[in-house]
Amino acid sequence: MSSPKSRAQSSSVSVPPDYITGTGIDKHAIEVRSKLYPFAQKNLDENVLHLFENTLVLGPHWFGHVPPEMAELMKKDAEAHLCFESTSALASHSWVSKNLSRSFPSSEVRNSSVKWVDWIDRLLPRYRPHWKRAGIYDAVLLSKQSVSRDENLLAAALCFWNSASNTFNFRIGPMAPTLLDMAQIFRFRPHGRHVDAVGNYHRKKNQQKLAKPFTIFPALINQNCSFSNYLRKFSAENDKDQQHMLFLLYWLNRFILPNRSSAVLLEYRHLAEALHNHNDVELGPSVLAHLFKNLHTATLENLLNLSAPGAFWMIQIWLQVYFPELRFPDIVLPEDQVLAQPLMSAEVPKCSIEEYLMFFRHCTKRSAAQWQVVIRRTYPWFQPGYRLFEKEPKEEAARIDFN
Q: Which of 150, 230, 295, 299 is paired with 212 by a 20 to 30 Å CA distance?
């Protein structure tokens, strides 16, 4: 669950310590186990959950202070937040932020007479074919719905996130959203024209210019950057091309790549410009990279800070796709529908953090259908009609046990 830090052995050459290279890893593990054993019976509780009034601690947990012998060894482990002394344990009631509006944006904006849904409906007849070719049609329509958020599920899952490997280190094994997941669950294009922060999308060998550049003055956007002001100011822009780029800029800032300011920033202006002018921008890798960065921020920069910026609604949907136990059994995932669609506004179980932690702790088996919920489906537009599995695998034969 942790990632070791590299320390320079000399001022001139940075040499990693032996416990993170080669056989040094095994040597360090053996040393830890040998020194841990004498204390294990009376000082260490290896249970996964410990409750102290309003404090929830993930094991192993020391009764009292960590023995000096172990404290010295544990200094070698970087950012190991799942082993705490009782005096420094995280209070579970503080894990769930009350300010999740950035991570789970609503389709409605307070104090705005202009509706986002209406703006989509007005542009849909004109831009439906373009959105489909560009791989954003389904994601745009998904933004018409408000996600039924499950804060406790997200908080529990973040306890297992490892930024060193960009994976959730569940008991069942390491898992993480992939490019194929982003394509099948949200229909983001997994390949194509690279996302370029400086706006060089149009540059080819012949230096072809953009057909329709973004011409709205940045100062005007900054003056109306709040979501409500932005909708009122720009949803009725006369220039159809400029209005579409303004529309895409709002969609990116509010739903796909939300920021700390909870406002429309110019950071993604060139991306909106590219999505308007081209139909092959690879949005999937960029969104996935932002998710990984946001997960790092929420778990390492600020311990279990769910108010950190990020489209965490996508993480909730991803978890519900691969773990049907985290959604109600009457929810089905139709073959002819983007996977996120039936999960967006569906009611969620709303279990406690402790219950979700115990689920991830004891979940050691997945059926073939559960493991292959994405790859067994027919590929969407980027590989029409293609399937990795033409025949249904035998359920029990494909079952994997991680006990």
A: 230
pLDDT bin (cut points 50, 70, 90) of residue 156 is confident
What would the mean pLDDT of 193-219 be, rounded to a whole number? 72
Which distant-in-sequence residues (6+ apart) come within 8 Å of 249 by Cβ? 221, 264, 268, 269, 272
Residue of 160, 174, 178 whose CA lies nearest to 291: 178
324: which DSSP letter? G
For residues 250 and 74, what is the distance between their CA atoms, to the nearest angstrom? Answer: 46
- The helix (run of H) or strand (run of E) holding residue 58 is strand 55-58
Task: Say if CB 317 and CB 172 are below 8 A apart.
Answer: no
- pTM for this one? 0.76
Residue 60 has pLDDT above 90, yes or no: no
pLDDT value, residue 382: 66
Nearest to 328 by CA among 354, 345, 315, 346: 346
pLDDT digits (tens, 9 = 90+) for 211-256: 788 889 999 999 999 999 999 999 999 999 999 999 999 999 999 9
Rg of the chain's alpha carbons, rounded to an integer?
24
Q: How far apart are CA 31 and CA 25, in angstroms?
A: 10
Work out whether strand 55-58 and strand 49-52 pair parallel, antiparallel, or are unpaired.
antiparallel
Kindly report the number of other CB atoms within 10 A of residue 285's CB atom: 17
Q: Cβ neighbours of residue 393 under 8 Å, at least 6 residues apart?
A: 368, 372
